[in-house]
Task: inverse folding
């Protein structure tokens, strides 16, 4: 292979700062043709900045950047695209109002030939090519429909179709599997492998080591904005990678202690929302961590949202500590003693442009206000012990939450809810997008809280997390609870089976 | 970066300071301080170099003329901070004046009763806006362009002929009479009370905190138990009520109600609010800045008139100030990022979304 | 991964598809309302359409708002707004008068060109501020609305351009007809056709939609957002400038207040025409029909027995109705699209 001599992408000591903030100190990466290269590192290690430099979103401050052996310097994403670089971001960025086809070809729509039609878009050719792309990917998506209403997985596929149609020689995927279910991941991997076999270079960023080991051939580790190491996947182990990522020893990732299980705290009976879930009944007891497992899209988050009342539901009852909880009324749920750490930290969990202190105090305002009046001083005073308790790393309480790492943001969200002194904590994807170190901290905290008698309902797409932390696993499939497995009986196999089993008994 | 993600023992982390910048930076490096400074500079300059600006009528006229704008700017500030807008305020003002005038002059209702009924009308008109925006979920920009036309149309329909005049002098004189021997008209009393009420509401209550949170992130506010829809609804109701109060004042001051009463005020109100440092995208701004913004325009206007400049010059200046204020605020925020904080520890550059509303 | 799956080709022919799209379109519904109003007014009074003047006015009166609505639509589709168009119209109208006062023999074509140019320059100022300083268009154009109007008032004072200042041939153009269709309307429709064709078939047109649909994504796609938005404001300004020339030709007058309040009418026409106020969707045809509807309803109401004092209220109600209708339609559409997705997934 001649490609082995000249890497498709080569970065050496690339740096990038924003004002006083160094986002990338010394990033290096070499990716050869016909390979899938994993890029791993904790959040804030500089992976995303590195990717954005390659994509032309940011311009590097220093270091070398070569593509196919040629030094390059992209001033815009258009230039990187022309050079054959395609980037699939974690969250697909599609135009909801435009058709699927237009989304694929935006910015480079084929023009017709001929005198009159030379300046107009050749819509026929465009749709035909989109159809051909989807055929190749083996998916059913009507190219003429608007992107509005497509699932994340479909949107991901459109991003990939876009990359293929660009005939990109370098394809970078930034955590593409974060929102995908099992078979969608399998489909994505099949496509990735076939692209590799065509001789393209792929960079795959993921927090899931099983995926790295399954898909990639080489792995580069980054830490604190710098390059650490590159190894062949076959010649390394998960614990070696983790050690390099963290740069220190990580304690037990799932420090679960057995807590005394008490009274029923949450009692959900026959909860139903048409089209999402139905006949959902379960209980969570004091001191118990109940894991809600299942594929993405099975209805887990929807159930949690309905229980807490941010969404309305059609039928059923929710009872907390013996008292009925009003439907579609988060305030009522909070008053009853519920807390909810949602899935999307930046949009739902936090007022991301708000200060750390005000975020922490945001749910307990009625308690800290005196005769209806509240001051910033009282908010910060109320927030301080909770920031302390969770070891939130910030320089001052008026710093914007947006300036913190994902792990620290999650701590702020948890602090905000613990401040309400809840009886039940619902936590959706507790460690998504959080670095390994903070992950263990969050797990230790959950375990501790359960030990103090808090009832916890935990939703997670990471099977090891569910199996490691939950006293009991409820499996959701197609909007129904299909299994209730005790901690000692739960295995990856029986949970996955319950999550994916075809519906022979269902409805 | 290294410092943020490294695990350190909790003992080194005791006692977070509340603020990352010192008190001088906090008080002076913001839009509100800039507007207040501009107000002071313009006022002092006018006192010194504009003839008759120090005369007894200047203050009186400024307060008399700009009270309605100031009134409507109070709820408008809160509405814009939630990321919405109310373009219908001037039409609400107009229809309120017309409604009250018609009740008194054509139906013989006594003025006090008519005024109470008018305030109820203001609440209803505000509630219509609020219902469509908060509960039906329509974009306020479009809704209130519609009610701008609708309410103005109702005023025209109510008045039909051109002008209604001649109200009870007892009521008519009250707002414009001076307080004691000062140059302050009595309308300033209710205006000041309302300004304090709105200031406390926005800056020192949980409701006000919710207003900011809605502007910064409506979804996060909803997830934290803020009743987003009810908050917006109430704000539009307040806006309707205050606009109709302003309508009564304008009617009494001019001793008449016409189809064009208050026409074009909505853009003046919004211009003052934006000039006062409120972000059109919501989430930031403060009421003292807005009050300074209204007064800045008022003082400029008065000084220019006394210098024999036409009213068009103030228009040009308002326009340029608006443009300059948004451009400077985008510079100011970049500048502020460069100032030293207690050791910067940012490790993510947040792509602040400038989208007003998701589709 | 199974490779035997095929994307289902649309079962409809291109013609059928175009027909169903047309029949379901938002533009058709508003056009029907327009036609019904014209019919109702005509039944009540035949001269509304069936007279020389009635026919002419039906087509001519909306032509000014038509131009503003077309320009406004192009700006709104990029998730911006241009509130300065009324002031721009006033400035070019007054400038047109001044040109004729200075030289009554100025060729008409030159006057049109001057109007377009002045408008384009003023639009470019808006575009420059919005696109290159990345500041909100609502605030910037509110500012330039004041500044432009103030400048005009400063220039014009209480002076008026009157019919006597306007050469006869230009004034005649205001009412001239070609095959019974007023020339100004023909120009307006030609502009509409060109802009509509561009938005529908050119890369630039589709990019304008993309920018309004998701500005952040547009940056990531490497679209030249600044240039497109700048272009949209230049177009809006130029068309407002052209509308200023129209306004002089039609009404033979211009003064400091010419075009006041037209900016909100232009936005209203666009909204009535089904263009989303936050960009990304809608058509220029809809905006044009919205402009015709707004103007026509004002003429028709007195005939239909509704006192003209209530016209404003009816127009306001119409705007609210249009927004509510759009919400209902878009909710239904989103629902259908999600369902369509589920169906294909089950098949797959």
Result:
């Amino acid at each position: 292979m001649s490609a082995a001599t000249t890497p498709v992408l080569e970065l050496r000591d690339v740096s990038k700062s924003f004002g006083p903030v160094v986002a990338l100190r010394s990033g290096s990466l070499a990716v050869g043709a016909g390979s899938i290269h994993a890029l791993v590192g904790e959040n804030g290690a500089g992976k995303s900045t590195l990717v954005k430099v390659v994509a032309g979103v940011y311009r590097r401050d220093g270091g070398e950047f070569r593509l196919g052996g040629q030094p390059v310097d992209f001033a815009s994403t258009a230039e990187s695209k022309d050079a054959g670089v395609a980037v699939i971001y974690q969250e697909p960025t599609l135009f909801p109002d435009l058709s699927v086809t237009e989304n694929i070809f935006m910015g480079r729509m084929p023009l017709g030939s001929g005198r009159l039609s030379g300046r107009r878009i050749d819509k026929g050719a465009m749709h035909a090519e989109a159809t051909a792309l989807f055929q190749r990917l083996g998916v059913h998506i009507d190219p003429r429909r608007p992107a509005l209403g497509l699932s994340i997985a479909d949107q991901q596929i459109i991003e990939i179709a876009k990359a293929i149609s660009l005939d990109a020689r370098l394809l970078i995927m930034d955590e593409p599997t974060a929102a995908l279910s099992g078979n969608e991941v399998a489909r994505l991997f099949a496509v990735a492998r076939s692209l590799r076999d065509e001789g393209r270079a792929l960079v795959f960023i993921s927090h899931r080591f099983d995926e790295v080991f399954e898909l990639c051939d080489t792995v580069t580790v980054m830490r604190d904005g710098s390059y650490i190491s590159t190894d062949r996947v076959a010649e390394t182990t998960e614990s070696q990678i983790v050690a390099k990522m963290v740069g220190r020893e990580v304690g037990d990732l799932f420090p679960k202690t057995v807590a005394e299980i008490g009274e029923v705290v949450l009692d959900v009976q026959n909860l139903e929302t048409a089209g999402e879930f139905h006949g959902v009944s379960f209980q969570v007891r004091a001191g118990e961590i109940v894991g809600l497992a299942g594929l993405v899209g099975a209805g887990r988050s929807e159930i949690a949202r309905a229980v807490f009342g941010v969404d309305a539901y059609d039928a059923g009852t929710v009872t907390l500590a013996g008292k009925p909880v009003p439907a579609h009324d988060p305030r009522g749920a909070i008053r009853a003693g519920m807390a909810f750490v949602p899935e999307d930290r930046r949009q739902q969990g936090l007022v991301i442009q708000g200060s750390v202190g005000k975020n922490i105090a945001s749910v307990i305002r009625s308690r800290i206000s005196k005769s209806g009046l509240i001051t910033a001083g009282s908010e910060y005073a109320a927030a301080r012990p909770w920031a302390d308790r969770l070891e939130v790393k910030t320089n001052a309480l008026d710093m914007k939450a947006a300036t913190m790492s994902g792990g620290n943001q999650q701590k702020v969200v948890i602090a905000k809810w613990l401040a309400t002194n809840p009886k039940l904590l619902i936590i959706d994807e507790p460690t998504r997008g959080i670095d390994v170190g903070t992950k263990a901290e969050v797990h230790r905290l959950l375990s501790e809280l359960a030990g103090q008698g808090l009832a916890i309902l935990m939703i997670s797409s990471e099977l090891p997390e569910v199996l490691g932390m939950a006293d009991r696993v409820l499996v959701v499939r197609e909007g129904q609870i299909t299994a209730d497995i005790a901690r000692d009986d739960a295995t990856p196999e029986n949970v996955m089976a319950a999550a994916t089993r075809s519906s022979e008994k269902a409805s | 970066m290294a410092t943020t993600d490294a695990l350190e023992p909790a003992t080194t982390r005791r006692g977070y300071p509340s603020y990352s910048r010192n008190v001088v930076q906090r008080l002076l490096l913001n839009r509100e301080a800039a507007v207040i400074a501009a107000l002071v500079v313009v006022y002092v300059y006018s006192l010194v170099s504009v003839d008759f600006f120090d005369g007894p009528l200047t203050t009186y006229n400024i307060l008399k003329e700009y009270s309605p704008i100031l009134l409507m700017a109070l709820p408008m500030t809160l509405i814009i901070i939630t990321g919405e807008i109310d373009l219908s305020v001037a039409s609400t003002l107009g229809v309120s004046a017309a409604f009250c005038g018609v009740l008194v002059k054509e139906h013989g209702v006594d003025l006090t009763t008519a005024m109470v009924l008018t305030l109820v009308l203001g609440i209803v008109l505000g509630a219509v806006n609020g219902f469509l925006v908060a509960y039906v979920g329509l974009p306020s920009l479009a809704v209130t362009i519609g009610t701008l036309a609708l309410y103005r149309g109702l005023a025209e329909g109510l008045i039909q002929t051109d002008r209604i005049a001649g109200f009870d002098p007892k009521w008519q004189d009250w707002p414009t009479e001076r307080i004691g021997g000062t140059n302050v008209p009595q309308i300033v009393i209710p205006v000041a009370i309302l300004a304090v009420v709105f200031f406390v509401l926005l800056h020192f209550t949980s409701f006000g905190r919710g207003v900011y949170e809605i502007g910064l992130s409506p979804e996060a506010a909803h997830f934290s138990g803020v009743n987003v829809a009810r908050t917006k609804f109430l704000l539009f109701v307040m806006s309707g009520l205050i606009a109709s109060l302003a309508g009564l004042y304008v009617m009494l001051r001019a001793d008449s109600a016409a189809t064009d009463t208050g026409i074009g005020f909505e853009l003046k109100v919004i211009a003052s609010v934006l000039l006062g440092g409120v972000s059109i995208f919501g989430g930031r701004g403060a009421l003292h800045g807005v009050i300074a913004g209204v007064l800045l325009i008022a003082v400029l206007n008065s000084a220019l008139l006394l210098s024999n400049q036409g009213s068009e010059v103030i228009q040009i200046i308002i326009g340029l100030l608006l443009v300059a204020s948004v451009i400077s605020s985008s510079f100011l925020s970049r500048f502020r990022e460069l100032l030293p904080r207690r050791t910067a520890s940012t490790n993510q550059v947040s792509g602040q979304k400038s989208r007003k509303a998701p589709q | 991964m199974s490779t035997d799956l095929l994307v289902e080709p649309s079962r409809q022919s291109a013609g059928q598809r175009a027909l169903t799209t047309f029949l379901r379109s938002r533009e058709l519904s508003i056009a029907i309302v327009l036609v019904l109003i014209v019919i109702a007014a005509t039944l009540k009074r035949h001269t509304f359409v069936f007279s020389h003047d009635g026919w002419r006015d039906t087509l001519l009166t909306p032509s000014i708002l038509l131009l503003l609505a077309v320009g406004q639509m192009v700006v709104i589709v990029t998730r911006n707004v241009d509130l300065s168009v009324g002031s721009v119209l006033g400035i070019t109208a007054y400038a047109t008068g001044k040109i004729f006062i200075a030289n009554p023999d100025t060729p008409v074509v030159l006057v049109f060109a001057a109007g377009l140019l002045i408008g384009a320059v003023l639009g470019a100022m808006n575009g420059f501020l919005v696109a290159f300083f990345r500041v909100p268009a609502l605030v910037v154009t509110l500012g330039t609305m004041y500044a432009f109007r103030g400048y005009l008032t400063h220039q014009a004072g209480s002076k008026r351009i009157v019919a006597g200042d306007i050469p006869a041939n230009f004034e005649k153009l205001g009412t001239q007809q070609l095959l019974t269709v007023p020339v100004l309307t023909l120009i307006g429709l030609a502009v509409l056709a060109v802009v509509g064709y561009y938005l529908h078939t050119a890369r630039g047109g589709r990019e304008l939609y993309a920018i309004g649909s998701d500005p952040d994504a547009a940056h990531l796609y490497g679209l030249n957002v600044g240039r497109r938005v700048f272009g949209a404001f230049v177009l809006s300004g130029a068309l407002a400038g052209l509308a200023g020339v129209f306004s002089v030709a039609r009404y033979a007058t211009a003064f400091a207040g010419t075009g006041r309040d037209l900016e909100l009418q232009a936005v209203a026409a666009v909204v009535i025409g089904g263009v989303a106020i936050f960009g990304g969707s809608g058509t220029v045809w809809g905006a044009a029909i919205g402009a015709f509807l707004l103007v026509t309803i004002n003429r028709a109401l007195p005939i239909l027995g509704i006192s003209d004092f209530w016209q404003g209220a009816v127009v306001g109600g119409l705007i609210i109705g249009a927004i509510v209708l759009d919400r209902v339609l878009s909710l239904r559409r989103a629902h259908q699209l999600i369902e369509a997705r589920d169906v294909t997934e089950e098949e797959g």
Remarks:
- Chain C touches chain B through 53 residues (CB under 8 Å).
- The first strand of chain C starts at residue 177 and ends at 178.
